[in-house]
Amino acid sequence: MFNQLYIKIAFNNLKKNPKLFLPFIISGVFTIMTTYIVMSLSVNPGLSEIPGGDNLQTILSLGSVLLIFFAVLFLLYINSFMIKTRKKEFGLYNVLGMDKKHIMHVLFYETTFLYLISMVLGIIAGILLNKVTILFIRYLMNAPVSFGSEFSFQSMIWTLIFFVAVFIFVFLGNIFQIHRSSPIELLKGGNMIEKEPKANSLVALLGVLVTIVGYYLCFKIISPITEIQKVFLAGLLIIVGTYFIFTSISIAVLKLMKNREKFYYQTNHFIPISGMLSRMKKNGVGLANICIMLFGTIMLLSMGLSMLSTPKDQIETQYPSDAFIELQVDEGENVEANEAQLKEEMHQASEEVASMVNVTLESVRSYAYLSIFAKPTEKGFGVKEGMYEGEKLTNLILIDKANYQDLTGEKIEMKEGEVLIYGVNEAYPKSEIEIMNTSYQAIPKDNMEKFSLGNEVTSLMNEVYYVIVNDLHSLTEIAASHNSVVGKNFARNMVIFSEINLAKDTTKEAELKYGESLQSYLESKNRNAIVDTKTAGSSELYALHSGVLFLVLNLGLLLLLATILTVYFKQISEAYDDRERFNSMKKIGLSRIEIKALIEKQTLSIFFLPLIVCGIHAVATFSLLKKFMFIILLNYVDVYLLSVIASFVVFSLLYFVIYKISAKSYYEIVNQ
């Protein structure tokens, strides 16, 4: 009998309170759908058969952990708003004779209904969209379209089990809140007005300083990968500064407004300012949360938009030839004397393997270069023993004049004792340079795009300089000097790099077979060489691109939904808190039109402050985020700026729509 009563009460609560329960159901459906899709993709047998598919599924498997973590936090956060808004309802149950044990029974059935509704709709949506997602990923990876069912029973079971645990956790959290609250606290609900906070100018100043230091670090970081600790520190400082800004600085500004008596003691100023000030400590934290989620949403969606806008031919910039050989010359081998012989050996190997696997060779072009790491000094660059252990190093990529001219077709003039130098991140600032204790006149060069060895990505990890020296003898001397100091484990030898082009009608399968056969051939000749092909490289790049894009879009949409619902629940919960206050204002003579104008003024102030601060964060952190985008966008990173602007504008319009909907709901509640 009692169970039937609890079930009836729980069912009626869900039916009669759509403003409270519908956003939570939408959250549950979205997180369940996303979890099922990611789990299904990570075990999909069809994707694993695509070149690069194994890498994609590894990325998705790792990313699913992050995605699920945010999904759980998201549900718990939305639930905390919902349970806070319902405390007065539970207090009324208590007064009417239901003790906390009975209330917990009602909560149990409510949570069960919410789980069943969310799970059924989420799994159905996941199954329907899973096929669309697979087709989208196949499109991104240039893979053929697959037909047939993509349902994963294993993924469905794991999703069901996982979200049972999540909803149990939500239920236990709600029970804990009810158990620790007294009947009086429940009845008062959210109407317990905070004591007016004091303005702390020292904390406000600290907040500004902390944020500026975070911005400064973002601007100064050159290599976000090697300086990842500074990246995390900058992010932490900006987050802490954001909380300081919205708690201390907002209070200080409101206090300043209050102290201006002519301004403060007006109906359209007095009521919203006093209302915000009375609970700004709590409001400040909520606004800071919204600001941080706004920033995360805009940054993630702009990354996704950038990746979708990136031309598919970006692989051509990284692989200008169909295949390549990177031969590490053995220590002690005389490169000066044997350069032509080594290049010819690579040419013959390329031709022999092409004949073996039945592909047509169009051209082979080889050149010699040296790549070393060195420590910046006052005069240039040098090395010392143990410098690879935690030191910030610079990558010097050196080539001699003859090889550079053969490679690029560009004629260059150099005098004895001169080097041409090009910095990827910044120009070399001095007219002289010392490399391995040998001094040269440094002549700046505008660019060396034709001699590119992945400098866009390398420059994220280290400062990179391309250097042209007069002859091969200078390169071998630099290599010998470097290796004599750093030792055998960190020795860097000369490299013979061969670019191989196959006939245009060569299939991808034949190109892959050619690369694998060439690698085996060189290994059989005891040559320390790496062989790669455009097809293999593009598969890996597309896998990375597709996996990161999918996760970025999902996290972005999750944060977008979290931001929308957080703003919505914040306004709804405050509307219930303010209802009695505005009813009292009506009794003392305020008209509905005046109340509506005050509500719009108050919600407008609260709504758009996080968006403004978010915009400032986006501008200040752009240089750092742009460097991260090099990893995915490579040569097309300039599209990221347009994507950030477009995402911010579109989201601002969406945010305005959310404001209008929330303001309308707020007004309806306070007028009940």
TrEMBL record:
Record keywords: Cell membrane, Coiled coil, Membrane, Transmembrane, Transmembrane helix, Transport
Domain ABC3 transporter permease C-terminal: 63-180
Domain of life: Bacteria
Transmembrane region(s): 20-39, 59-78, 113-137, 157-178, 199-219, 231-254, 286-308, 548-569, 604-625, 637-658
Compartments, record wording: Cell membrane
Coiled coil: 332-359
Chief location bin: membrane
Topology in the lipid bilayer: Multi-pass membrane protein
Presence of the UniProt keyword Coiled coil in the record: yes
InterPro entries cross-referenced by the UniProt entry: ABC-4_Integral_Memb_Prot (IPR052536), ABC3_permease_C (IPR003838), ABC_permease_BceB-typ (IPR027022)
Family from the record: Belongs to the ABC-4 integral membrane protein family.
PANTHER family from the UniProt entry: ABC TRANSPORTER PERMEASE (PTHR46795:SF3), ABC TRANSPORTER PERMEASE-RELATED-RELATED (PTHR46795)
This protein's name: ABC transporter permease
